[in-house]
Amino acid sequence: MNEIIQEVTNNIIKRSAKSRKIYLNRVSQQKSKGVNRNSIGCSNLAHAIAPMNSYEKETLTKFDAANMAIVTAYNDMLSAHEPYSVYPSLLKRALMDLGSTAQVASGVPAMCDGITQGETGMELSLFSRDNIAMASAIGLSHNVYDGVFYLGVCDKIVPGLVISALTFGHLPTIFVPAGPMPSGISNAQKAKIRQEFAAGKVSKDALFKAEASSYHSSGTCTFYGTANSNQMLLEMMGLQLPNSSFVNTNTPLRDMLTKKAAKVLLQMTQEKISISNIVDEKSFVNAIVGLMATGGSSNHTIHLIAMAKAAGIILTWDDFGAISKVTPLLCKMYPNGSADVNAFRDAGGMSVVISELIKAGLVHNDVQTIVGKGLDNYIVEPTIQKNMIYFQKGPEVSRNEDVISSIEKPFYSEGGLKLLSGNLGRCVIKTSALKKGNMYFKQKAMVFESQEELQNAFKKGELEKDFIAVVRFQGPKSNGMPELHKLMPPLGLLQDRGYKVAILTDGRMSGASGKVASAIHLTPEASDGGLISKVKEGDLIEMDIENGVLNLLVDEEKLQKRKIPNLTFEDNQHGVGRELFSTIRANVGSAEEGATIFDLVGKERS
User: Fold this and answer.
1) Phi and psi (nearest 5°) for 150?
2) Do both 466 and 491 map to the same domain?
3) Residues near 350 by Cβ (< 8 Å), separated by ≥ 6?
4) CA 266 from chain center: how many Å?
5) pLDDT 10s digits, 575-595
6) Overall number of domains in the chain
7) What is the pLDDT of residues 5-26, one digit of tens each?
8) How far apart are CA 499 and CA 487, in angstroms?
9) Which of 37, 52, 61 is nearest to 142 (CA)?
10) What DSSP line would sit under 517-529, residue for residue?
11) 221 is in an annotated binding site
């Protein structure tokens, strides 16, 4: 085992000892209480089974059959989730053949960040994660279920579902993916046309045609952003069927994997393997290693911390930083390469990645998963033989070294994310797509209070120079911490023109960002009095990515005299439902703490 990985794991275990004990005690208490179905009143039970057909009612009232909950994020606006329309019937039929039943316990919201990028609705995106966890809990609170299927793929949805699942830690749990759409036009073509549109070289019709050729069918978007990083994490944590995440949607193999999930969950129920038996400190270390090795989404430096809290586990950005330093970058997928997740799957996918990481001693193999003990259970490949699904031995060596490399010849010696710190605070930066010349900046600041201000300055031709864009008051307490991905085309274009540009913000970037150096999630945020709130136009900022340094090069005496801008954010508190989230804005924690409203473990009763 790599010494640093083991040391980080030990630190997490020690740091989490008290909260983890409280969590496990609560799970144990809930397990001892069991499922309410065989003890609730007749009227209660009658309500629970009223919509079922006669066979399901007969099966369930024998009390020796399992009844599974289905928590679904289905809607037919979100391409990744549209395939879920048929999943409940597939799962129910598979379970009926095995003498058990299932019910849709809860539908949870699922927004598409691709639709809300740069729009007002994006200010609800991060908050939707905790909302999803609560909506899921309402469905499961009926307590008539023996296990749970979670149907979700995209950005905030999976983290929200994981928070819910860990809160109901006494229940066997499996996550069921929907798979990516087939490849459309290349991601490189799409990025090029976006920049040409920003430069005024192509029409809006041409831009729309390119976008529609990229996002063109049901299934997950094929770039390696937060949605597909979610799928990678679920496999690294042993919560999803092995090497199944990137099997295309609406294919025979995808449907057979869904049915297989029903069999696996039933077996877990019979063997009393709950999610709390699977997810522990080692699981989260494996997840972080996977994030670094694949060049995954920077959003998970927030989400993984919030997810871990739900299990009484305390992660810090220092854990991410230490792991990144010893984890080589093994994958090149857009935005840190030209390939998409379909090419990743064809190269061997998670089977190759996990094989390489185990070989290097970078992940814990001695973990429980939904398919047995050992992460090496995931070095397999699903296939159909004689109308049956099999998990045969998977590839351990990449079939395409331009997409998946090896421990011996990685694309980069360190992971895809780095921690920066200095007098401005602490933040993270995605490095997997950065070129060598974009790893050090000592530039004057251009200060913007919104992404619209920066875009307007670009249109006016005011950004034709070297600078660091400081986009502040974009943190969770200011306006919900929206992604600022719409800034990438203009900044990318300036970079292509030879200007040395970077961005510093207390906001987020899309999981698909990475070409432009983006120091993000800065804490303390501007609304918490962070030093970013005192930066003035023309101030010199040093961003040394290789050495993890971020400093405002202004005398302390001058900084003490500066006042924080008095912004009210009145315009960010109403419209598209933002009024309903005022309590969350007032109580949300910092990005470094997971940007969550939950204190899920709290204090142990005396």
Assistant:
1) -110, 125
2) yes
3) 232, 235, 236, 242, 243, 245, 246, 378
4) 27
5) 999 999 999 998 999 999 999
6) 3
7) 999 999 999 999 999 999 999 9
8) 15
9) 37
10) EEEEEEES-GGGT
11) yes
